[in-house]
Design brief:
The complex is a heterodimer. By secondary structure, chain A is mainly alpha-helical. Chain A is built from 19 helices and two strands. Chain B is globular. Chain B is mostly helical. Chain B starts with a helix and ends with a helix. Classes of the chains: A mainly alpha, B mainly alpha.
Chain lengths: ~525, ~625
C-alpha cells in the first residue's frame, strides 16, 4: 500500500476517466459521483502520504515506484517524492476534489467534462511525481490539452473563442520551448550514459558540470518556456483572459495546480543542472518578477470583472515565487515552494467562489454587485478570507511563504553586495502589503459591502437548504480549501520541515556551501 | 516561581481566541450566550493578569515557549514566545481591564443589534490580537499580531457594512495601516539582516555589546520601524484613517480607536526603544517632531468639529502625538505613563459619549444636545471628570502624565515644549467647548429634551473608569513601568504623599505651564461657549475655521495624490497590458503567424511522405542548431 501510494494517487483519476468512457451519458448521477469518488480517494491517499508515509526531515527521494519501460532510451516510469513536490501533490489532489465538487454548474456534455477533468487531475499529479523527464513532460501535456478543450467547450463570456485560441497557442509555445530545452539537456550527456531520469541527470551534472556555453543556451529555453507556463511577466496576458473564460473547475485546476509545473521544473531541473547559467540570469528574473508583483498588481487594480481580478492577482502572486527562486537562498526557495502550495489552495478557492457568485448573480461585474454579504453570509465570509489571504494576512499559508521569500531575498544572490538597501525587495514588499490590499479590499467593498440591491435580494448562499439537499455538502469544497490555508498558515512547519532539507541538498549540489550557510546537508540517500 | 503561574500568559492570550472561535462556530444564534462568553473570556484574562501582576511584581520572567518554533529555515527563526516584563504587564492590565469595562458596556449598547454575536466574536478576536502584540518576544510574532489587530479593526469599523461610509472607512483604515506596515516590515527585515535575530532580548544584547551594530543605517532602520507606529497610532501623515474609523460602534471606538490598538504604536516604540536610542541615529528627533506636529494639527482640527465622536477622535490623535513626542524626547516612560492614563479617561469619555448618543437615538451633533445634567446625572458627572482628567487639571490622572510629557519635552527641546503647552491650551479649550455645548445650557433639540439615563450595565463601567481616571496618576504607573529592562536609567522615587506635588518639585516650569495652559483654555472656552446656541468661532476665525473644520483638507489632498499616482499608473499599466502586450505583441504575433499560415497552406499537399520528411528535417535542424552551432 505505502510502496505504491504515489501510483495510486495518480492512477485513481485516470482509471476513473477510463471507466467513465464506458458509462452511458444519461447516467448523470453515476458519472458525477464516480468523478467525485475518484478524486476523493486520490486526495485521501495524498493526505495519508503527506502526513503518515512521508519521512519529514529526510532530504532525498522516498516512496519510490519504478517500472522499466523503454530501457534502450532510458525512459522508465519512476515516481517519487521529496520535499519539493510532496506538498504540491497534496495540494493538487485536494484542489482536484474541490474542483470536481463545484462542477455542478456544468449542464452539457457532462460525461466528457468529467473525463477531461479526471485526465487533467491525473496528468497534474503525475507530472509533479515523475522523476523521469519523459513522463514529467508527458503528464504535463496530458493535463494541458484538456484545459484547452474545456475552455473551448464549456467556457463563457464573449471572449471565449479568442481566449481559447490564445491560451492554446501561448501555452503550447511555452511547453515547446521547454521541450526543446529538455531535449537539448538530454543530448548534453554522452551517448552511452543518456538517461531521462532526473535524479541520474542531477547526479551526473553535479559530478561533470555542464559546459557553460551549453548552460547559457539551454537555461533561457527552460526559463522562458517554463516562465510562459507560469505567466512570467511579460508573457502573462493569457492568464487573466483564459481564467476569465474558463469554466470554474478548469480555472481552479489550472491556476491552482498546473501553473506551478513551470516553477517546479525550474527548481527541480534548471537550477541544479545549470547553476552557472542560473546565476547569470538571476538579475533578469528578479527584475521580471517585479513586473508580476507590481505592474500586474496595478493592472489588477483596474479590473471590473471579478475573474479578471483574481486572474491578475494570481499572476501577481507568481512574482513572489520567481523572487524566491532568484534569491538562490535556502529561505527564499523554501518560501517559494510554500507560496506555490498556498497559492494553489488560494487560487482554487477564489475561482470556486467567483464561480458560485456568477452562478447566483449572473454577473461578475464588480460595479454591478453590492451588499452580497447579507444574502450570502457563508460565501461572503469565505470571500473575505480569500481576499485577506491574498493580501498576505498572517494565519493563512501565503503569509508564511511570502515572508520567507521577502526575508530570504533581502540578501539574495541577485543582490549587488555592498548596497545597503535591496530595492527589488522594497518594491516587492510594497506590492505584497499595499497593492495587494488595495485591489483585494476594493473587491470586498464592491461585492460584499454596501446596501444590497433588490436585484440580488434573493440570491442563495451555498448550502442554504432551499437549493441543496444537504446543508453542509455544498460548503465542503470551500471549507476544505480555507482549512488547508489556515492549517499551513498556523503551522507552516508542516511544510517547511519537509521542504527545507530537500532545498538544502539541491542548493548544496548545485552551488556548494557559500550560497547559504545551513545546518545539515547530508548527501541524499535513497529510500525505497 | 511555580510553573502554573508561568503559564498564565498563555491562558491570558488564548482565552479570548477560544471565545471568538466558540462564538463563531457554536453560539452564533444565542445572542446572550455569545456576549456572556466574550465578556467572561476577557474578565478571566483580566483576573489572571492581576494575579500575574501581584505575584511577579516588577520581575522580568519568561514563560515556557511553545515546544517548537513557528518557523525555522536557515537563520530565519521565528519562535513563539512570551515576554513578561513591567512594560508588558502594564499593557496586559490596561487591555484586559479597560477591555472588560468596555465589553460589559457593549452589551448594554449593542444588545438590540441584529449581529450581536458577530460583534462579540470580533471583539474577542481583537482582544486576542492585541494581547499578542503585548506579549510578543520577537519582531515577526509582533508583526503577525500587528496585522491581526489591523484586520479585527477592519471587521469592527465595518461592522455595519451595509452603510457605505462604514464600509469605506474600514477599507481606508486597513490600507492606511498597510502603508505604515510597509515601512515596518522593511525595518524588521533590515534589523534581521543586520543583527541576525528577531528576538527582542537577543537584539538588545547585540546592541548593548556593540552599539554601532546597525552602522550607518541606524537612522533608516529606526525610521522604518517608526513607520509601523505612524500607521497604527495614526500619526501625521497617516492620521486620516482614525477619524473615519468613528463609523464603527461607539464601544469599538472606545476600546480600539482610543484606549488600546492605537496605543500599540507607542508600545512598540517603547519595546524597541533600544534600537532607536542610539548615538548615531537621528530617528528619535524625527519621531519627536512628528509626534509634536500630529498633536498640534489634531488639536487645531478638534476645535472646530461638531460631531461628538470626531472631537474625541481628533483629541485621541492629539494625545497619541504627545505620547510619541515623549518617546522622541528620550523619555519613553512618560509616553507609557500618558498612554495608561489616556486609556482610562479616553475610554471613559468615549463610553460617556456613547451613553449620550444612545440616549439621544444616535444623534452625534453636539449642537443638538444640551441640558443633560439633570436627565443623565451619572453620564454627566463621569464625563466631567473625564474632561478634567484629559485637560490635565490637578490632581486628576491626566495632569501627572501630561506634566511628565511636558517636562520630558522641556529637557529635550524647547520647541517641542512650546508645542506641548499650546496643545494643552487647545485640549482644555475644545474639551470644555464640547462639555459646555453638549451637556450644559438648554436642550437644543427634540431628542435632547427626552433623554434619559442609560441602564446600569452602561453606567457601572463608566464609574469604574472614572475611579481610574481620578487616581491613575498617583498609583505609581510611571515608577512601575520604568523598571522594564528596555529602558535605560533609573527613576526618582517619592514617598506616596509626595506624589501629589511631585511634578512641581521635580520640574516646576513644566508643571506651572501645564496649569497655566488649563486656566487659559478653560477661560476662553467659558467665554465663548457657556450658554452659546451657535458656534461663535467661525465668524471670528473665518478661513482658518473653515480649514479646521475641513480637517486641513488632508483627505482631499490624499485622494488627489492617490488618484494621480496609483490610479493613474494602474490605468497606464492596464492600457499597456490591453493594447501593447496583449494587443500589439500577442495579437500582432498572432496576425503575422496567421498570414504566414495562409502562405504555408500552399505547402499543404496532403501527402504523408512530404509531411514526414518535413518533420524529420525540422527536428534535424533544431538539433543541429542546438548542438553543433
Amino acid at each position: 500500500m505505502t510502496k505504491y501510494i504515489l501510483t495510486y494517487i495518480i492512477c485513481c483519476p485516470l482509471l476513473a476517466a477510463l471507466i467513465l468512457l464506458f458509462i452511458p451519458r444519461n447516467f448523470r448521477f453515476v458519472i458525477r459521483n464516480l468523478a467525485l469518488l475518484a478524486t476523493a480517494i486520490s486526495a485521501l491517499f495524498a493526505l495519508k502520504m503527506f502526513f503518515f508515509d512521508f519521512t519529514t526531515g529526510f532530504p532525498g527521494r522516498q516512496l519510490q515506484h519504478k517500472v522499466e519501460w523503454i530501457g534502450s532510451l532510458g525512459i522508465n516510469y519512476h515516481v517519487a517524492v521529496d520535499g519539493l513536490n510532496v506538498g504540491l501533490i497534496l495540494m493538487g489532489a485536494i484542489v482536484a476534489f474541490a474542483a470536481a465538487a463545484v462542477s455542478r454548474e456544468i449542464n452539457k456534455y457532462e460525461k466528457e467534462f468529467y473525463v477531461l477533468l479526471l485526465v487533467m487531475t491525473g496528468g497534474i499529479l503525475g507530472a509533479f511525481a515523475s522523476y523521469d523527464l519523459f513522463f514529467f513532460y508527458f503528464f504535463h501535456e496530458l493535463a494541458l490539452v484538456p484545459t484547452f478543450i474545456m475552455i473551448g467547450l464549456w467556457g463563457r463570456g464573449e471572449n471565449k473563442n479568442y481566449a481559447t485560441f490564445q491560451i492554446t497557442i501561448y501555452l503550447s509555445l511555452g511547453a515547446l520551448l521547454a521541450l526543446v530545452g529538455l531535449i537539448a539537456l538530454y543530448l548534453q550527456l554522452p551517448p552511452d550514459s543518456r538517461t531521462f531520469n532526473i535524479a541520474e541527470l542531477t547526479n551526473y551534472f553535479s559530478k561533470n558540470p555542464m559546459n557553460v556555453n551549453a548552460q547559457n543556451l539551454i537555461f533561457p529555453l527552460l526559463l522562458f518556456g517554463f516562465g510562459i507556463l507560469v505567466s512570467l511577466w511579460p508573457f502573462h496576458t493569457w492568464a487573466p483572459l483564459g481564467y476569465g473564460s474558463a469554466p470554474t473547475a478548469t480555472a481552479m485546476l489550472h491556476a491552482g495546480v498546473l501553473k506551478k509545473f513551470g516553477l517546479y521544473g525550474l527548481i527541480r531541473i534548471a537550477l541544479p543542472l545549470m547553476p552557472e547559467a542560473a546565476q547569470s540570469w538571476l538579475h533578469i528574473i528578479a527584475v521580471l518578477c517585479l513586473g508580476n508583483i507590481v505592474y500586474v498588481g496595478w493592472v489588477a487594480m483596474r479590473q471590473r470583472d471579478l475573474n479578471m481580478l483574481i486572474g491578475n492577482s494570481s499572476v501577481a502572486h507568481m512574482g513572489f515565487c520567481f523572487l524566491g527562486i532568484a534569491s538562490l537562498s535556502l529561505i527564499g526557495i523554501t518560501g517559494t515552494v510554500v507560496v506555490m502550495v498556498a497559492h494553489g489552495f488560494l487560487a482554487a478557492l477564489s475561482f470556486a467562489l467567483s464561480g458560485y457568485i456568477r452562478e447566483q448573480t449572473n454577473t461578475l461585474d464588480m460595479n454591478k454587485m453590492s451588499g452580497l454579504l447579507r444574502p450570502m453570509p457563508f460565501v461572503g465570509a469565505t470571500l473575505v478570507m480569500a481576499a485577506m489571504a491574498g493580501c498576505g494576512l498572517p494565519g493563512f499559508a501565503n503569509f508564511a511563504g511570502e515572508m520567507m521569500v521577502l526575508f530570504g531575498s533581502w540578501k539574495g544572490a541577485f543582490h549587488t553586495s555592498g548596497a545597503a538597501i535591496n530595492w527589488i525587495v522594497v518594491a516587492a514588499v510594497w506590492g505584497a502589503l499595499v497593492i495587494g490590499a488595495l485591489y483585494m479590499l476594493r473587491a470586498v467593498r464592491n461585492i460584499l459591502h454596501g446596501p444590497v440591491s433588490a436585484e440580488f435580494a434573493n440570491v442563495k448562499d451555498a448550502g442554504s437548504r432551499s437549493i441543496h439537499g444537504f446543508a453542509w455538502w455544498p460548503k465542503l469544497p470551500y471549507v476544505l480549501l480555507v482549512g488547508a490555508l489556515l492549517l499551513f498558515g498556523f503551522a507552516p512547519r508542516l511544510l517547511t520541515d519537509k521542504i527545507k532539507p530537500s532545498v538544502d541538498v539541491l542548493l548544496d549540489t548545485a552551488f556548494g556551501k557559500p550560497i547559504q550557510e545551513s545546518a545539515t546537508a547530508q548527501v541524499a540517500v535513497e529510500k525505497p | 516561581m511555580n510553573d502554573v503561574l508561568l503559564n498564565f500568559p498563555w491562558f491570558i492570550l488564548f482565552v479570548p481566541l477560544v471565545s471568538a472561535l466558540v462564538i463563531t462556530f457554536f453560539t452564533k444564534r444565542n445572542r446572550g450566550l455569545s456576549a456572556g462568553i466574550s465578556i467572561g473570556a476577557i474578565v478571566i484574562s483580566f483576573i489572571l493578569s492581576l494575579i500575574l501582576f501581584v505575584a511577579t511584581g516588577t520581575d522580568t520572567v519568561t514563560s515556557p515557549k511553545l515546544s517548537m518554533d513557528w518557523l525555522s529555515v536557515g537563520n530565519f527563526i521565528v519562535d513563539f514566545g512570551i515576554t513578561i516584563d513591567p512594560l508588558s504587564k502594564l499593557m496586559l492590565l490596561i487591555v484586559t481591564g479597560v477591555g472588560s469595562a468596555i465589553h460589559i458596556y457593549s452589551w448594554g449598547y449593542m444588545h438590540e443589534d441584529r449581529a450581536v454575536s458577530r460583534y462579540f466574536a470580533s471583539l474577542s478576536l481583537f482582544t486576542f490580537s492585541m494581547l499578542g502584540i503585548v506579549l510578543s518576544n520577537n519582531f515577526l510574532q509582533m508583526f503577525i499580531f500587528w496585522e491581526l489587530v489591523g484586520v479585527s479593526s477592519y471587521l469592527l469599523i465595518g461592522f455595519w457594512y451595509e452603510r457605505p461610509p462604514a464600509a469605506d472607512a474600514a477599507k481606508k483604515a486597513f490600507i492606511t495601516n498597510r502603508l505604515g506596515d510597509f515601512g515596518f516590515l522593511l525595518g524588521i527585515i533590515m534589523v534581521w539582516s543586520l543583527l541576525g535575530s528577531l528576538n527582542f532580548t537577543v537584539l538588545q544584547e547585540v546592541i548593548v555589546n556593540n552599539p554601532a551594530a546597525l552602522g550607518g543605517l541606524a537612522t533608516v532602520v529606526g525610521l522604518l520601524l517608526f513607520c509601523g507606529a505612524v500607521g497604527k497610532s495614526a500619526q501625521f501623515p497617516l492620521h486620516v484613517w482614525l477619524p473615519d474609523a468613528m463609523e464603527g460602534p461607539t464601544p469599538v471606538s472606545a476600546l480600539i480607536h482610543a484606549a488600546t490598538m492605537v496605543a500599540a504604536g507607542v508600545y512598540m516604540l517603547c519595546r524597541v526603544y533600544f534600537l532607536l536610542n542610539l548615538s548615531d541615529s537621528f530617528a528619535l528627533e524625527v519621531i519627536g517632531w512628528v509626534g509634536g506636529l500630529t498633536a498640534l494639527l489634531a488639536a487645531l482640527i478638534a476645535v472646530q468639529q461638531n460631531d461628538i465622536k470626531r472631537i474625541l477622535a481628533y483629541s485621541t490623535l492629539s494625545q497619541l502625538g504627545l505620547m510619541v513626542m515623549a518617546v522622541g524626547a528620550h523619555q519613553p516612560v512618560a509616553g507609557m505613563f500618558h498612554l495608561t492614563t489616556h486609556a482610562f479617561f479616553k475610554a471613559l469619555l468615549f463610553l460617556g459619549a456613547g451613553s449620550v448618543i444612545h440616549a439621544l437615538h444616535h444623534e452625534q451633533d453636539i449642537w443638538k444636545m444640551g441640558g443633560l445634567k439633570k436627565k443623565m446625572p451619572v453620564t454627566f458627572w463621569t464625563f466631567l471628570i473625564g474632561t478634567l482628567a484629559l485637560s490635565g487639571v490637578p490632581p486628576f490622572s491626566g495632569f501627572y502624565s501630561k506634566d511628565f510629557v511636558l517636562s520630558a519635552a522641556y529637557d529635550a527641546n524647547i520647541g517641542l515644549f512650546v508645542i506641548g503647552v499650546i496643545v494643552s491650551v487647545l485640549t482644555t479649550f475644545y474639551m470644555f467647548r464640547l462639555f459646555f455645548v453638549a451637556f450644559l445650557g438648554h436642550p437644543k433639540s427634540e431628542s435632547a429634551e427626552h433623554a434619559h439615563e442609560s441602564p446600569k450595565v452602561m453606567t457601572v463601567p463608566l464609574q469604574f473608569l472614572t475611579v481610574l481616571s481620578v487616581v491613575g496618576g498617583l498609583i505609581g504607573v510611571n515608577h512601575y513601568v520604568a523598571k522594564a529592562k528596555v529602558f535605560p536609567g533609573s527613576e526618582h522615587h517619592f514617598p506616596w504623599y509626595a506624589e501629589f506635588i511631585a511634578p512641581i518639585v521635580h520640574a516646576p516650569v513644566a508643571a506651572l505651564f501645564g496649569i497655566f495652559a488649563v486656566v487659559v483654555g478653560f477661560t476662553v472656552a467659558y467665554k465663548f461657549y457657556a450658554g452659546a446656541q451657535r458656534d461663535p468661532l467661525p465668524g471670528k476665525l473665518g478661513a482658518l475655521s473653515r480649514a479646521m473644520r475641513g480637517r486641513f483638507y488632508f483627505d482631499e489632498i490624499y485622494s488627489a495624490l492617490i488618484f494621480m499616482t496609483h490610479e493613474a499608473v494602474a490605468k497606464l499599466a492596464d492600457a499597456i497590458d490591453r493594447w501593447i502586450i496583449a494587443g500589439l505583441l500577442v495579437r500582432g504575433t498572432h496576425g503575422t503567424t496567421e498570414l504566414f499560415g495562409r502562405a504555408l497552406r500552399l505547402v499543404q499537399t496532403g501527402n504523408l511522405q512530404t509531411y514526414a520528411f518535413l518533420i524529420v528535417a525540422g527536428v534535424a535542424v533544431v538539433l543541429f542548431y542546438v548542438l553543433f552551432r
